[in-house]
Amino acid sequence: MFVRSIVADAFGTNCYVLAPAEGEECLVVDPGIGVEGRVQELLREHRLRPAAVLLTHGHLDHVYAVTPVCGGTVAAHIHADDRYRLTDPLSGLGPGLVEALEQQFGTRARWQEPDRVVELVDEQVLELAGLSVSVSHAPGHTEGSVIFGLGDLPAAIPADDLDRTVLSGDVLFAGSIGRTDLPGGDPAAMQRSLRDRVLPLPDSTLVLPGHGPATTMARERTTNPFLQNLAADRP
Predict the structure, then answer these.
(1) Contact yes or no for 117/136 (Cβ under 8 A)
(2) What 3-state class would DSSP assign to 100?
(3) pTM of the full predicted structure?
(4) 194, 230 contact by CB (below 8 A)
(5) Phi first, then psi: what are they for 48, rounded to 5°?
(6) Read out DSSP for 55-94?
(7) Half-sphere exposure of residue 104, counting CA atoms within 13 Å on the CB side?
(8) Residues in domain Metallo-beta-lactamase (predicted)?
(9) pLDDT tens for each residue of 34-83
């Protein structure tokens, strides 16, 4: 599987481009702030054609470039519980933060809702761009946070101990988890998502998170304090 990551200009958000191979249709996951030019360059370089944009959740740092990447023809896919966030994700930021972003990038912050939006549901399987992508609803960071699963690995990853990939958004990071103190966050829901959605993932799972480096479930199960504490509390 062809996989490339682009780190956004703000908040270090990971945007991923996935395809069966070069020269094929592809999926763009979480196009954040300032990535659209680099996404288009990558698509041209590898002769890729976007078939869909997948959003792990609706926070601004994961969706800001969704409309230019979609280009009016490609649909943005987001869980139904986070659909409302695409109306105006800028409204969730304080004026001070919006002003700081505008000063950093030298342009006025603007938002236009995507023309085509598909609402995702839990345990749905998407057949897009020649890839089969499972949807696992994992609220806690936001109401509609999801984990996307694929039964394949990036071509450059040795397959000795790994056999599948998840894109965990802001549910699970290397050594940490997503915060739950923002609007729509829910610590109890996050604990349930970690227990019921993350812990059951096999150790052979490669984890591509919304921020920071890639990791594996084998590593997180033994080193991530949030999973260790959760496992210790289970009956």
Answers:
(1) no
(2) helix
(3) 0.92
(4) yes
(5) -105, 150
(6) -S---HHHHTTHHHHHTTTSPEEEEGGGGGGGT-GGGGS-
(7) 12
(8) 12-211
(9) 899 999 999 999 999 999 999 999 998 999 899 999 988 999 999 999 99
- In the chain, the domains with their CATH numbers are 2-233 (3.60.15.10)
* Three-point CA angle 75, 213, 20, nearest 5°: 45
Residue with tokens 């792990």: 56
Question: 135: which residues sit within 8 A by CB, 6+ positions away?
Answer: 79, 120, 121, 122, 123, 124, 125, 126, 146, 147, 148
Q: Which helix (H) or strand (E) holds 17?
A: strand 14-19
Closest CA to 120 of 69, 165, 169, 56: 56
| Phi, psi of 69, rounded to the nearest 5 degrees | -70, -40
